[in-house]
Amino acid sequence: MRIAIIGGGYVGLVSGACFAEFGVEVAVVEADEQKRQMLLEGRIPIYEPGLDKLVAGNNAAGRLTFPATLQEGLRDAEAIFIAVGTPTRRGDGHADLTYVFAAVEAVLKALDHPAVIVTKSTVPVGTGRKIMQMARDLRPDLAIEVAANPEFLREGSAIGDFMRPDRVVVGAESETAREVLRRLYRPLYLIETPIVFTGLETAELTKYAANGFLAMKITFINEMADLCEKLGADVNDVARGIGLDGRIGRKFLHAGPGFGGSCFPKDTLALMRIAEEAGAPSRLIQSVVAVNDARKESMVARVAAACGGDVKGLRIAVLGLAFKPGTDDMREAPSLPLIRGLVSRGAFVCAFDPEAMDQARPLLPADTHLAADAASALDGADALVLVTEWNEFRALAPARLRELMRGNVIVDLRNVFDPQAMRDAGFAYSGIGRAAA
What we know:
Rossmann fold, N-(1-d-carboxylethyl)-l-norvaline Dehydrogenase, domain 2, alpha/beta, 45% helix, six-stranded parallel beta sheet, 19 helices, 14 strands
């Protein structure tokens, strides 16, 4: 079986490499020539654990290619996946479908055989119908089917999510489209992964609903963390106590500085707009968006309070810049408003992240110092703020921190450290949703 994937970004490249691992012939069409050359040379333009080896192995085996032209990529493809960006549209919060429709139009004009066009990108409800109309208008001579196959990949564990998913959702309304995707996902079906076949609109909404619900869980536990601090409770124990309930589940109940990344912020905003325009506004999602935005901004005041109310003139070490560990993605990362706020209040910020330094540099204030490693960031610091829970930060011993730091303030925004061990070492420690000593 041969397929084409339009877009060699995060979703397109991960999906392409994993399909190739299944034995499918995959052509990833990347319009950015610089990125295409990187891929041809075996260099991966994004950070995702294990992706470099998966791409290299399947490219060497001839199953994964990066053709120079769209026509070459579409040759004999039974399914063509659209995996281009859908960023938030300026001004109204909707997903910007400029790249999606441009890709679909180019595909329709270049196709010379019947095929199934599949949206892999996260697209608003109704997008599949519009693509169907485009196909009828531009290529009435070809039998072109349309399907929706949303991705549910977590950055940092995307390969495992693709290979061992909880489910595969396929929105298709013709047996031809269903059969093509059924054959494509047959390796997963053999290990009893549920494949949910739905209509186009249902598949499109399912992706937004899933991300909206998970974002709501994060926001809920963050609000419970604030309540814990007022009442002298511990949010980690609260999360465990409710997470063991099978109706709730343990995942996405980790209190922190607010969610970021490429999906939750833009998808909750888009879902909010979709619901408003449909005449069924989602007050829950509206609150999730507002509460999360406010939470990220409030972290500056939290750090200032831990430092005695004022950070002016203080050297503050910030560990972790990416929105989560296992990725270099800086989109909507909580570290950004935090560092901007600290700098605006007169602090000297020295930051480090194991993977996101290059991506962070143009997004941070010019006078932010980016350290070569964690120790350099901590050297002489008056306060430490842990923002992203990379494993190497978990291993920082209290004694080592005392050697490096000048001050004794630790603000742990991910509850990584042992509070008592830090206090025993003489630190003024504060976490999220944990009672003060």
